[in-house]
Every structure is written in C-alpha cells, then in structure tokens.
Design a protein that fits this description.
414 residues; mainly alpha; Hypothetical protein af1432
Length: 414
Amino acid sequence: MDNNLYKKIEHYVTGLFETLEDNTLAYHNLKHTQSVVDRTKEIAGHYHVNEKEMLTLYAAAWFHDTGYLFTELAKHEEMSVDVMRKFMLDHTNDNELIDNIEQCILVTKPLRNPVNLLQQIICDADTYNLGTKDFKATNKRVMEEYKLKNGKLDKVEFNKNTIKLLEDHQFYTTYCKDLLSVTKELNMKKLKKKLAQREAEETQTEEKIPEGESLQDIGKDKSRLMSKGIQTMLRLTSENHLKLSEMADHKANILISVNAIIISVILSVLLRKLSDAPYLTIPSIIFLIVAVTTIVISIVATRPKISGGKFTLEDVKEKKTNLLFFGNFYKATYEQYNVAMRSMMRDTDYLYGSLIKDIYYLGKVLGRKYKLIRLAYNIFMIGIIISVFAFAIAAFFQKNIPANTIINGSGSPL
C-alpha cells in the first residue's frame, strides 16, 4: 500500500475545492471537510483502528462532500462516490478498500444506518458540530448556504427543520455519546427557546386584514397595540423599581439586625469586663461607634418620607399632582379623590404623565437609598477591620507589659 496515499488524497481534494470554488457553499466547503477529517482522526484514535481501516476513514472523510462541487444536494453523496472511485482506481487495485470507502460515504446520507464501527465513526465525525459550542456558528453558515442556493429563506421554518434534525439525530459511537450528547441537548433547548420567542414576536406584530376591514381599522389596531406596549413597559418598570426598593430595605434590615446584636453583646458582656481589662476600653468604644453609626445610616436610608397628603382641584386641572402616589391624597376625602381620578383617567396625557412621574420619583428614592446603604456597608466593613485591629493591638501590648510592673497614683511605674 502506498504510504503517500494519505497526502495524495489530501492534495487532490484540496485542489478540487480550490479549483472548483463555489461561493454558495458557505458550510459544505473545504473548511468543513478538513474539520470532518480532524474529527475522524480523533474518534478513530480513541478506538485504535488498524492502518487499512484508518485509510478507509481518511479517504471517506476527505471525499464525502466533493459531490457538492458537481451536482445538486440530493445526489451529492453518489457523486462523491464517483469522484472517489476515479481517484482511488488510479492509485490502488484494492477493490475491498474502495468498496468500504464507498459505504462510509453513502452512510452520511440523511437516513443514516451505520452497520459497523467505521461507518459509525464517519457519521459522528460528520455531525460532530451538533454537540459542540460551535453549533450556533455552523448553523448560521448552513442557513446562509441554504439562502444562497435557494434565493430565499424562512428563518422560522429553517429553525423548525433544524430542531427536527437535532431531535432525530443520534451519536453512534460511545465516545461521542459521552462527550457530545449533553451539549447537543443544550443547543436544541436554546434553539427551541429562540424559535418560541420569534414566533411570539411574529404573533404580536402580525397584521391581518379580514374581509371588509379598512386601512383605518388597521391603524386603530396598531395604535391599540402600541398603547398596550407602553402600558406593559410602564408596569414592568414600576414593578422593577419596587423590587429594587424591597431589596434595599432588606439589606438595611440586615445591617440593623447585625449591629443591634453587636451593641447588645458590647453592653451586656464586654462593658462588665472593662474594670478587669481596661485595655479593651478604646477598642470597645470604636466597635460601639461603628455599630451605632451603621444603624443610624441604615435607618435614615429606609425612613419613609410622606408629603402633605392633600391636593386641590386646581392642581388636578393643571396636572400638578400625582394621584397615583398615596402621599399626595391620603388626607383627601373619597369624593375628592374619586372626581380627581376619573378626571385623570379621561386624560391619557395626564395618566401617562403621572405614571412616568411615579417611576421617576421612585428612581430618585432608590438612588438615595442605595447611596446611603452603600455608605453604611462601607462604614461597617472598614469599622469591623479597624475594631479587630484595635482589639489585637490592645491585647498584644497588654501581654507584653511586665507582670511585676506597678503603677503609682500619677500613672507612672514605680
């Protein structure tokens, strides 16, 4: 057997792709063929196939998509076999080898049914990308090739067909099953999610003109759709602000609770020992100041601020008051509030303006809250570090004072 046959196969197929370059082959090109060859070597290496089997796989991997250069998609495998046979008959008279290569090429057709390890390896190498993170990029190239070949492309239909391909596909070798199955499932889930989102968007924006409906009616439908979208946006923004406010309050409550416990410990336990261990006085005071300061700032951050609670009809007419915030109406009578609200609901500009104003001031309050809570956390963090160092320094100096040192009344050692 010619040991240079590997190189000859590679040079021949590479030359075909370069000479007969087809710009419509965005995916089934030389790059894909080289990738299949590399994957074939990887899988075959795992199973330690013999030299003749390796040559069979190598030749099948290089020739399996050469048919794309000469004929249409549906017949490219048979054409690939013809190209392979013409080349191999010029370089070997081993008919068994050529027949095995042919079977490995033909088994890459959509209805795969590999009957031996070599055919399983070539099938898995050809579809290796389905179970890798490169799937998104390779799928885009397949989509581009389809569009170049057919002139048009329905992305939703294409993605449905790709999902069907992934659902029907299977890896045959245990090596690829173990290595690629999980990622393939993830790729399929991502594609299904993308398809569901796209279909939902198309359902929302789809414009149908029933019999007897005018363009004016369509304009009204679009206006209603836009109005609904604005309402949804304002509602979600307001909800997000409220959730952030709850998170800020929760963070402040954590600081208050932790520091309240620290103060309780200092007052109930540590202060009693100061008479016996006066060297702990300064560290205890630092710790106490830090805890009290943190609590005060946390309370200031969460302390509610309420406005006057009243409004006048003049305020409503001039759209100066926000009736959606309780602080502006809690002292008003029900009759006053009912009249004012109905007036606002009849005025879309006033209603949306109030919603926008409500979101804006929620944001202002949030900005103040998070600024103060950040300050409280910084003080607590730095204060804890300083306090621990103060305790450590005090303990160190106390330990190093000679035990027989006596302090006189003036504070100097005798």
